[in-house]
Fold GntR family transcriptional regulator.
Amino acid sequence: MIHIDHRSRVPIYEQIQTGFEALVLAGALKREDQLPSVRSLAKDLAINPNTIAKAYQLMEVSGFIYSLPGRGSFIALDRAALQARRRPEALVRFQEAGFQLKEVGVTKEEASRELARIYAQTSERRAADDSD
């Protein structure tokens, strides 16, 4: 489900949020799907429940999930809405990477080939995931 890298500089609560977002983007979770309880996820990931609670709280504040008292937490966004939300930031990072590539002498053709390779890998990975 979600992978936590304890050696990463990214805080665990952010890794949890990113993990759930990745599951929605991959189609493994859909709008209205229920998230595991704080206790259950804490046990599965061997993480302090307070860290899970913080992640859930931040996801709720951002509008990614919503909670119903006594019922649990649920995904609030579908894949398209999450893509639309994350698209502007991704394009800014892409532009910054483009500037860096140009600064170090990568040609437009080299960058285009690399981007095509990445898109092909992503498509192959999705096809493999869909066949599972």
Notes: The beta strands are 65-68, 72-75.
